[in-house]
Amino acid sequence: MLKSKIAGIGMYVPENIFTNEDMKQYMDTNDEWIQERTGIKERRYAHRTEETTTTMGVEAAKIAIKRAGTTAAEIDFIIFATLSPDYYFPGCGVLVQRAMQMNEIGALDIRNQCSGFVYALSVADQFIKTGMYKNILVIGSEKHSFGLDFSTRGRNISVIFGDGAGAVVLQPAQKDGQGILSTHLHSDGENAEMLAMYNPGTHANHWVNDKVADFNDAEIADMFMSKEMIDKGQNFPFMDGPAVFKKAIVKFPEVVVEALSQNGLTTADLNMLIPHQANLRISQFVQQKLGLQDHQVYNNIQKYGNTTAASIPIALCEAWEQGKIKEGDLVCLAAFGSGYTWGSVLVRW
Ligand code: ACO
Asked: Which helix H or strand E contains 44, and what residues bound it?
């Protein structure tokens, strides 16, 4: 059966480095706490106005397209994964199509948070395998700095996240045995609210539908995002850190083993695991549980923080640029995050 391969990969991170020390001007925190609990030393923050989730995605995409030996005009489908889109709608996919002056191709946005890139790759893989498309651009990009609570109230979350983008071009594999071997997607919505941003959202249905005309503009705005919601910080992400940690350290290894065993392989066959860069402690726990050596796992959360949908393509790109992934290597991408959703992609490079 036709397989798909990662033909080109690129990444983009903003120039602006924001250290743990810099955090202290906004909240009561310290470098020691952040490094000990998360491994993070610094992260990048996008320019307030000039860099958006889409513009960063486009920069990563340009590199991926060039390395794939193709052009924007030859891309026949776009998949964009993010939880921090430029607009509530439309999604970033169409903004990439416009920015890169692509043909009137399909553009799909994926909302699977930390698992977004793995889900996006899996969807792209199906389109290549059926022969429907030959050049799919898959992007993961986030501008978290836009929507974090930088007061002490939000410190358990805000110190973790960073901005950046990664992209790949998927094409049909030419060589036997090369390419994506399998993808594995999972979800469990039982704890959907454990890691979530609730507002604005239709769960808060304040509207008295047939009496809209009775409300003035200020009252309507208040229903959409009320002062009470803002006072309670409900316009920012919420995370029950310990609950997420407990689930992540079970599901991460499980989905890696699932991918390996479905292909008759074991952890000994694995050249490189690229885990979603959630938290260095989670990655270290997963490494230990799977019995992997240091050279079999790539982490760069220390430099970029958690960039959610962008973390896997950024880490994959860096590992590849550093020569840590070579032709013929067995590479596993694995993610766990809000939803909860989790998944893996096993690739013969
Ligand atoms: N600086 C200083 N102190 C802090 C900070 C901070 N940035 N954040 C929280 N604290 C304090 C708390 O106020 C609390 O103080 P108290 O004991 O006086 O009340 C104390 O540290 C412990 O707070 P917890 O929230 O219980 O912190 P915990 O030890 O659980 O660490 C963390 C928080 C790092 C988020 C941890 O729960 C964790 O690793 N969770 C995994 C989830 C995760 O990493 N998610 C990443 C994003 S989701 C994803 O990608 C899957």
From this structure: strand 42-44
